[in-house]
């Protein structure tokens, strides 16, 4: 690729609007990209769940763009940091995971993102690393040495710590260790660039500090916008009920995207498809936002499941929800006599947790043979409920056997 073509490609990546923070500056980062030097990029994720969501996918697609420019890419699995968890307002500690659970989760992840990250390229494949390889080897003296590079005041500058201080909520000492550990990841891998969401800039800058002090080397921090509703500001997340996870089959992925609020259309088009910005602007100017959403759902399903599956999912959605027809191939699921409705919904994959199932019922999103269910303690008796159709949300159907 000649320099002119390289600059065009770099501008396409940088101007798309996904990347929103460049530290130290965007100009310095672009200059380094144009220099032709091969840089080492990384992004990390703690494997605490079996499914990634479209927010992760957005960042991974950016990494793949840089890999295709010839740069080295590392997908870091935070199997060690995941045992502690990034500080949040939650009062309960994250359950410690075994190595087997971590590997099982990442095995699922790799399958989910195989169409957006090239792990098989013979010359420059995406690399996979686990941070237990170095964090697990540090002794207490090593940790104290790392900690000496930061002050308590610096740690308290983090938004979530400031908020807890004002609310007189506890801050545990081990929570200060998370940015320290994430920072040391950069040192251990000797990276040039860390890609993260805007919510992780504090941790990424800890790595920049350690790189400067330990290796006398500058590290770029580039941050992506979190996917959020343009109208309400609500983030895409599991807890908000707006998470779209990559382990969904084609039909359910299509339906999950179609159920997103209109304010999510542009962020998802920009961050999670390869549609050009000019075409995205055209889609956003359509009279009916639903038409743009149909294209969005089709494009995303095509990325993860292929064009044929995307077409079938679209036809299924139109026939089921636009024409008010029940699908002809509803899955038949056996119920256990006396099984709780929450347990059944969770078992068949129509909810992410019992709490999620409870919310769906309380919000009027669950019905049996067209009759809304409001009792979260409902017992599914075989004789009473056999051959009836359970509907959860707008897209999930099951025939109870």
- Assign the CATH superfamily of the largest domain: HUPs
The helix content, as a percent range, equals 40-55%
Assess the beta-strand content as a share of residues.
Answer: 5-15%
Number of DSSP strand runs: 13
Given as residue ranges, the uncertain stretches (5+ residues, pLDDT < 50) are 89-93
| Mean pLDDT reading | 88
Total separate domains: 3
- Ends: how far apart? 60 Å
Give a structural overview.
There is one protein chain. With 401 residues, the protein is an alpha/beta fold. The protein has three domains: 222 residues, Rossmann fold (3-Layer(aba) Sandwich); 73 residues, Tyrosyl-Transfer RNA Synthetase; 70 residues, Structural Genomics Hypothetical 15.5 Kd Protein In mrcA-pckA Intergenic Region, Chain A (Roll). Helix content is 46%, strand content 13%. It is built from 18 helices and 13 strands. The protein has a six-stranded mixed β-sheet with strand order 1-6-5-2-3-4, with helices on both faces. Strands 7-13-12-9-10 form a five-stranded mixed β-sheet, with no helix packed on it. Strand 3, helix 4 and strand 4 form a beta-alpha-beta unit. The longest helix is centred in the middle third of the chain and has 17 residues. It is globular. The chain starts with a helix and ends with a strand.
Characteristic key phrases:
Tyrosyl-Transfer RNA Synthetase, Rossmann fold, 3 domains, alpha/beta, 401 residues, globular, Structural Genomics Hypothetical 15.5 Kd Protein In mrcA-pckA Intergenic Region, Chain A, single chain, 6-stranded mixed sheet
